[in-house]
Amino acid sequence: MRQKITSFSYAITGVKTAFATQPNVRIHIVIAIIVSVLGYSLGLSTEELIEIILLVGLVLVAEMINTAIEFACNAITTEIHPEIKKAKDVAAGSVLVVSILAIIIGAVIFIPKILSIFN
């Protein structure tokens, strides 16, 4: 049991480290709060809110995996290495892809709700 608690504390430390060291994580959290308030205000359905929560979580997970890869690569060498650059670029690209996905799905959910206010 003690080992499980220790593992859990490492995970909490990882979340804290990502939040403390990565401006993009903080930006994603601010956007998540704004989207959540907007979604609640527009009366999104339970299913739509679940989709938004999943997307927010997916973006944060991608950002944290990107951060982990960057930390690991930086621990290996501080010199520019072509393969490490590729690893970092691909990790950053994964955040970009999931963020674009979140924007598209968010637009599909939010645009009709916003337009209905004006009609």
Can you walk through the features of this model?
There is one protein chain. This protein is an all-alpha fold. The chain has a single domain (2-118), classed as Helix Hairpins. Helix content is 90%, strand content 0%. It is built from four helices and no strands. Helix 2 packs antiparallel against helix 3 and helix 3 runs antiparallel to helix 4. The radius of gyration is 18 Å and the shape is globular. The model has no long low-confidence stretch (mean pLDDT 93).
Architecture blueprint of SSEs:
Layout: H1 2-21, H2 23-41, H3 46-76, H4 82-118
Helix pairs in contact: 2-3, 3-4
Main β sheet profile: none
Structural class: mainly alpha
What is the radius of gyration? 18 Å
The sequence of SSEs as H and E is: HHHH
Under CATH, the topology can be stated as Helix Hairpins
Given the structure, what is the number of helices?
A: 4
- Which whole number gives the mean pLDDT? 93
The number of distinct β-strands equals: 0
Q: Portion of residues in helices? A: over 70%
Report the CATH C-level class: Mainly Alpha
Query: Based on CA inertia axes, which overall geometry fits?
Result: globular
Q: Termini separation (Å)?
A: 58 Å
Percentage beta strand: under 5%
List low-pLDDT spans.
none
CATH architecture: Orthogonal Bundle
Number of domains: 1
